[in-house]
Amino acid sequence: MGSVALVLNPVARGVDAARRAVEEACREAGTGPPLVLLTTPEEPGAAQARAAVEAGCSRVVVAGGDGTVREVVGAVGRSTTVGVMPCGTANLAARTLGLPLANPARAARVAVRGEGRPVDLGLATLEPAHGPVRTLPFLVVVGIGQDAEVLAALDPATKVRLGWSAYVLPGLRRLGRPGPELSVRLDDGDLERAGVWSLLAVNAARLPLGARLVPEARPDDGLLHVLLVRPRRRADWGRIAASGYRSARRHPVLRRLQGRRLQVELPGPAPVQVDGDVLPDMVRVWIELLPAAVRVATPGGSR
Q1: What pTM was computed for the model?
Q2: Residue pair 120/36 in contact by the 8 Å Cβ criterion
Q3: 6 and 36 in contact (C-beta within 8 Å)?
Q4: Domain ranges of the chain
Q5: Which fold has domain 4-113?
Q6: Mean pLDDT in order along the chain per 10 residues (303 residues)
């Protein structure tokens, strides 16, 4: 096989072990040492991924959290296979793709030598109240409403110390809060108003403990799954939680839609989260799903 690049977020959890594991996997595969490219706050992964492709690397391995992963995958496209070393807090992309989480050596072997699997890529174009419009790739989910508010309220130090469980307390504090009145258009349908606690635009996502945001969603099904969460009372949260462990069932607190394109207008400036990265003061979002747009190394190339 050809040469390997390692795009590494130097402040992510477990990156030193990830780097050693990738170097060892490259030795086993006979590729030579990986080309190591470090991310920075100003260049969080896309520029490094493009530089790796321009340098002739046939595989780009990314060691970081979901934000770093989406930056790299979105920049590479389908011509080059991306391997993922999970080093973040939630690691939703890695969970969704069935990658090893607790075994860096095995994860590195999959990242360096695993067969590339075509997966879908989402694009979120976000318009802020002030400033330029931005387009960000995502592999997992875009969240609007209390989902994004929870992440915006998350203390970074607590996130580092507790890992994914740090999301729980801010979420519990917001269970009884009302959500926004959104204007939503799916594909070529009419613009309709929807009062929701949260709107989730899902490519595919597996949560810690094995739950899924949309149980039937797959990262290669070519569909954007839209979940409108509308709890009316605290007891509804049991039904919402249970829905993550079984196929979709009709219930008034959850509305599920499918399509390729989604437009959302917010009633005022508010945060939007894209694969865990929070962008404040957004007023309009356009989301599009691109089927089989990227290739990611997975165990056996399929699940």
Answers
A1: 0.87
A2: no
A3: yes
A4: 4-113, 121-292
A5: Rossmann fold (3.40.50)
A6: 91 94 97 97 97 96 96 93 92 91 95 96 98 96 90 67 48 62 95 90 73 80 93 51 48 84 97 94 98 94 39
